[in-house]
Structure formats: structure tokens, C-alpha cells
Write a structure and sequence with these properties.
Length: 190
């Protein structure tokens, strides 16, 4: 065994973070003015439906309310990495250290580290190292340029100038919206 890997990676941490997003983050639905943000951790059923389609394994049972609270708290911590420009990174890491003090991990035969707990408690524990890994990429963590989306992504482009979570979806929606509104006053020459 050469390398030890964690059970879940940064894609899973982003999946958790994106369980709260703007109404424009759904690909097959156009957001309407005044529509509220979506919280997919509001019920156990919606949480399982969303998370298991976003790089997070299904432990086979729905989360309890205390388990949903832990997931929401971790989600908020991950979102703060991108949403809070004044975030005290040292305080953020200390809070994660306190949370990790209550967690146990075991090394599996396949070389992966995994929580000693089962179910959603284990999933949340396994998401903590993924959140720490995402914090290492904080300078590349972005919020989609579509204000109705609010989806988080890691900008791994060479120039680090990516604006949209998906250029073909949010980027296109924003360009079409600008086109339909017509030229702005700054674009019009006298």
C-alpha cells in the first residue's frame, strides 16, 4: 500500500456545499424573479436525493434531524470559504480541529481512511477531511457568476478566470439575458 486516500474527496465537499443554492442552479428550470434559494437539506428525503447524486454515498437510511444539523453546519463551513471574504482562516481551521477531535477514523485494507461510524454520522465524518482539502484550494474556490445560481466550484483553469459553474448553462443564460435586454447606456454611442 503506497498511498492512503480519504473515503470522500473535494467533489463530495462541493456536493454538500451546493445543497444550498439559488433558484437558477437547476439546469432544466429557469428561475423566476423573487424565487427563494433552495435548501436540499430541509428534509431527510430531499437530502438523500440530492447528496447521493452529488458524489456522496447513500448509507441506506435517511438522516435524522441531528444528522441533518451536522450536515448543514459542515455545509455552512464549506460555503464560508467562498462566500465570506473576511473569513478568519485560522479560526475556521481551529473550529474544524475541534470537530475532528470528536471523530475517529480507521485505515481500510484498500488504503482508504474512513470514519469508524456508520450511516450519516460516518458520511459527515468522512466529509470533514474533504472540507479541509477544499480549504487548501480556497484561492481557486468560486461562486458562479450567475447571481441566481450561487453554485460553488473550484476554478482549475490555467488562467484561473472561470466565471460560471457551467459555461453552457449559467454562462449561456447570462449572455442570452444581456442580449434580450439590449445594449446598456455605456454601449450606446451618441
Amino acid at each position: 500500500m503506497d498511498t492512503v486516500t480519504w473515503q470522500l474527496g473535494t467533489d463530495a465537499a462541493l456536493g454538500l456545499a451546493n445543497s444550498f443554492h439559488g433558484p437558477g442552479a437547476h439546469y432544466r428550470r429557469r428561475a423566476r424573479d423573487g424565487e427563494p434559494a433552495h435548501d436540499h437539506l430541509d428534509t431527510p428525503e430531499r437530502a438523500v436525493e440530492f447528496l447521493t447524486t452529488h458524489a456522496i454515498p447513500d448509507p441506506g437510511i435517511p438522516p435524522t434531524e441531528p444528522q441533518l444539523e451536522r450536515l448543514r453546519a459542515l455545509r455552512d463551513a464549506v460555503r464560508a470559504l467562498a462566500d465570506d471574504p473576511d473569513l478568519d482562516a485560522d479560526a475556521w481551521r481551529r473550529a474544524m480541529d475541534v470537530a475532528l477531535d470528536r471523530v475517529g477514523y480507521r485505515l481500510r485494507a484498500d488504503g482508504s481512511m474512513r470514519s469508524t461510524k456508520d450511516g450519516w454520522d460516518g458520511v459527515t465524518d468522512d466529509l470533514m477531511p474533504a472540507a479541509l482539502a477544499l480549504a487548501q484550494e480556497r484561492d481557486r474556490l468560486r461562486r458562479c457568476g450567475n447571481p441566481r445560481c450561487r453554485w460553488l466550484f473550484v476554478d482549475r483553469s490555467r488562467k484561473q478566470n472561470r466565471i460560471w459553474c457551467e459555461a453552457a448553462v449559467c454562462g449561456n443564460r447570462m449572455r442570452v439575458g444581456r442580449h434580450r435586454r439590449g445594449p446598456s447606456a455605456a454601449d450606446v454611442k451618441a
